[in-house]
Amino acid sequence: MLFFLGISGCIDEEIENKTDGLDLNIAYGQDVFNGFYPWVDFINQQTLSINSNIFNSLVEFGERYQIIPTLAESWNNPDKLTWRFFLRKDVKFHNGDIFSADDVKYSIDLIKGDKNNTLYSYITMVKEVIIVNDFTVDIVTLEPYPILLDKLVYIFMVSKQNSEEISNGYPIGTGAYRFSEYVKDNYLVLERFEGYWGKKPELQKVTFTFFNDYEDRLNNFLEGNIDIIDSINPTDYDNLSKIPGVKILPFIFNTVTYLGFNFVENNPFLDLRVRKAIYHAINLYEIIENVIHGSAEPASQFVSEYIFGYNPEIQRLSYDLTKARQYMKDAGYEEGFEITLDCREGEVRENVSRMIADQLSLINITVEVNILSSSDFYSKISNRESLFYFFGWATDSADAGEIFDNILRSVDFENGFGVSNFGNYSNQVIDEIAEDISSNMNPVVRLDLMKEGFAIAMEDVVCVPLYILKGYCVVRDEFSLPIRADGLIKIENVKIDN
């Protein structure tokens, strides 16, 4: 506290004279930038955020996961297997190449031709790309595939001509900002692309500085060297909020955390009453306030409200020890039982798991918290060896269909269903709903089906949903930064407050 308040005076002075209205400095962790598209080693939020300012996709997510046209002005479905995209005709790459259907086919084929590419899984359903004319292209899928647009968000368009001439190097995209300078593990500079097809951004130059140490990031912000930190520790919220000239913008992460059960082994969780007892016995408010410092929202199902398929009618079961004890008694477990809760290592996860163990002791369930390394944890749950586990899922496609395919459908490894159904849950009605969801091209029908499926799953207490973590982005007052559900920082949308 003394540290923060002691330098607030110099912060005020810096804020009054910080910017000429043209440049922006953003702090990221040193180890989070994993390469330029299409040579990315691994896609995470920060890497995606940087590349999304250099490149465009055919379509992109808006601030609340809505699909918006980008390099494709419009599209339709000539049949259930074909998506026809009509491309913008006024688009140039940063090197002057003209964007056309050739680049679309090349960009998708490039990913499809490399199964080791981190993005390959996004377009496995694409059978072929057919050029209709210079500015019209058909993407044909193997089966009806209603979430193709959500997947194409992650497939950036590259210049065929430029990419065929080089095998790696500096990124050339069509985005609002072009590559300027990069020193690995130090910084990246992007400059406004004056030939950008969209609205001209306000900022001329953006520098991403990579800090391995969180405290270094924070100190550089406080000293006036940094304008934005994409995410701070919740424990720093109160101190930073006391400094004039600083805005703290809350956002919601995409991961829903939950407790999973095993439905195959001979264990108490096969009884719905036991699952309900556990749900009622967990005081989520206490967990959020005392362990997560208030930086989370309660979850009621597998997805957040921003995800297509979310059912707003589903409510959490109340915290009620009387009901919980009655359910345990009715199930024949009044004296309780012992169980192991498997948890992947991580301070927040570990502390939450220990508090859950304390809370469940009040209904005579003795929980041993088993902290595992990431590799050991995923090995155990993937082998269906865990009876009770602490898990989280981020719906990156923004479509709840992936929850049904991966978590709620009965395990069918041959066809790729239920791969993350680590408890072997099986419900024939949900399987039928999930099958319809996966191929139904009518969005209204799909939404109703997903709402119905989630209602059934939560009535069956297939899991105990816990929370969705909040994040906090810190920004200087002279900048306005729209908060996006996907957590990306789109520089072209940053405004300078005069």
Rg for CA atoms? 25 Å
Per CATH, the class of the largest domain reads: Alpha Beta
Share of helix, binned: 25-40%
Number of domains: 3
Distance between the termini: 31 Å
Could you describe the largest sheet, including whether it forms a barrel? 9 strands, mixed
Task: Name the poorly predicted regions.
Answer: 1-21
CATH architecture of the largest domain: Roll
**Helix-and-strand structural type:** alpha+beta
Task: Name the overall outline.
Answer: globular
Tally of individual helices: 16
Could you name the CATH homologous superfamily of the largest domain?
Answer: Dipeptide-binding Protein, Domain 3
Count the strands?
19
Mean pLDDT: 91
How much strand content do the residues show? Answer: 15-25%
Describe the protein in words.
The chain has 16 helices and 19 strands. Helices cover 30% and strands 25% of the residues. Strand 14, helix 12 (347-360) and strand 15 (365-372) form a beta-alpha-beta unit. Mean pLDDT is 91; it is low at 1-21. The chain has three domains: 2-32 and 175-245, Periplasmic binding protein-like II (D-Maltodextrin-Binding Protein, domain 2); 56-166, Dipeptide-binding Protein, domain 1, CATH 3.90.76.10; 253-469, Dipeptide-binding Protein, domain 3 (Roll), CATH 3.10.105. The protein has helices at residues 2-6, 8-17, 45-54, 101-112, 148-152, 160-165, 214-222, 237-241, 272-281, 284-290, 321-330, 347-360, 374-382, 401-408, 428-439, 443-459, and strands at 23-29, 59-61, 67-69, 72-79, 82-87, 126-133, 136-141, 177-183, 187-192, 205-211, 228-229, 246-261, 296-298, 337-344, 365-372, 388-394, 463-476, 479-480, 495-496. The chain is an alpha+beta fold. Helix 9 packs antiparallel against helix 11, helix 14 (401-408) crosses helix 15 (428-439) and helix 15 (428-439) packs antiparallel against helix 16. Strands 1, 8, 9, 10, 11, 12, 13, 16 and 17 form a nine-stranded mixed β-sheet that branches. Strands 4-5-7-6 form a four-stranded antiparallel β-sheet, covered by helices on one side. It is globular and about 75 Å long.
